[in-house]
Specification:
This protein has 144 residues and is an alpha/beta fold. It has 6 helices and 6 strands; from the N terminus they run αβαββαβαβαβα. Strand 4, helix 4 (95-100) and strand 5 (103-107) form a beta-alpha-beta unit.
């Protein structure tokens, strides 16, 4: 992370000075601050995408930057409907992807919000949860 990130002392000042250059901002904060900021940002700046991949990280980007919109774009390019697609996720930043398709599946080791958004929760990443999810839904059989 140190090789790709540059810490700044005042994130607000930095954002103001680089407003035309930034496409996203990620910052480490307490879980309590993250919850508070989610609500505040949603009210104050409606045209952004706010998510998190780990508990103490808040990620803010363009409103069209989420995994769900990206997945829908890709499916459209490939001629696949969301009803035919499956997505797996384990963090809050996967929620838009899981809700974009018919088969949005959360990993057992995923965040609570991710599991709530999914149509099904499979086993953990370490226990071949993706394969188990595919087989559980009967979409694919090893006997084919």
């Amino acid at each position: 992370m140190k090789a790709t990130r540059k810490p700044v002392k005042n994130i607000c000042e930095f954002a103001e000075n680089h407003v035309h250059e930034l496409d996203s901002i990620s910052f480490v904060c307490s879980i309590e601050d993250k919850k508070r900021l989610y609500g505040l940002l949603d009210k104050e700046i409606p045209d952004i995408y706010v998510t998190s991949s780990v508990p103490n990280l808040m990620e803010i980007g363009h409103k069209d930057a989420g995994k769900g919109k990206t997945l829908l774009w890709l499916l459209n390019e490939l001629g696949i409907s969301p009803e035919e697609a499956m997505a797996f996720g384990d963090a809050d930043n996967d929620i838009s992807m899981l809700t974009a398709v018919k088969y949005g599946i959360a990993m057992a080791n995923g965040t609570e919000n991710c599991k709530k958004a999914a149509c099904f929760v499979t086993d953990t990443n370490e226990n071949d949860g993706v394969v188990q999810g595919i087989l559980k839904l009967g979409i694919y059989s090893l006997e084919k």
